[in-house]
Amino acid sequence: MLKLYDYYVSDDDARQIAGLNNAIKTKTFKLLDVMRQKKNTTINTTISPRTVNYWTEIGVLDKSPLQESNKWHKFSFVDIVFIHLAAKLRDFGLNLEKIKTTKHNLYRLISLKDENGTEIFKTPLSILEMAILLAFALKNHGNVYLLITNSGQATYMTEESLVLNREQYNLPDAYIYLNLNDLLNKNEFINKIRAKIRHETQKYALDDNEKQVFDALRQDNLEQLSVTKDTTNGAMKYMKTVENVTEMEATENIEFGGIYEEKQNGKVIRKIAKRTIKF
Fold first, then answer.
1. Buried (b) or exposed (e) across 38-65, using 16+ Cβ within 10 A?
2. In this structure, what DSSP letter does residue 62 have?
3. Is the pTM of the predicted complex or chain greater than 0.85?
4. Which of 22, 27, 75, 87 reaches 20 to 30 Å from 248, CA-CA?
5. Domain residues of the chain, as ranges?
6. Strands laid side by side in the 175-179 sheet
């Protein structure tokens, strides 16, 4: 069982984290980049501009480079979600020092460790970014909760991980858990920004042929891949792959263009499959 800092994550959640981590590595996952852009000058909460300035001065909010020149505050979508969260925490009575602790915890990069404390992998995603992506960017994943203790310790949990920690492991005696789906979906201002983000990321959407190429790139047994394009219109014509195959795949799989043996000192050391896919 893997842990995300102080709490356990379900096997499904661990696979989801790994999947998003792989997507980010391909550099085709543009949604996160857009979410991080600091270009929003309004936050539309009950928090006044004077309070925003004060929170920035004491470190509850981060300064952006433009703020050094006395220009408008600019926030990313992730920042705005945190500000709305911080406003709710103030309503619950958390003081600013504890909210600073909450921010520190939610902006930590995700690091999954085994029960011996050995790090399995670390992602460039913060805990809050992962929670936001699961809450509205990924479909059919249920509700996502932000769990905050009375000392300001914080993390996210899906319904499955929340049940896992509640029933099998010890949760803190006092904590708040907020439904992030409700915070995002029922806030008209946040929904407007989300719509803009989705519109902006549409230009990065992959067509079916491009998706097929990236799916092939993610295969563990892939060794080589090449794509030939039509020079007249730039469209992809076909893709060629070279893959390592097992003995069973070599004898039973008929979709490959050909099976080849590599030998060393007269002995077969491996078999590879070459195939061509026309678009």
1. bebeebebebeeebbeebeeeebbeebe
2. P
3. no
4. 22
5. 3-204, 208-278
6. 154-158, 144-149, 175-179
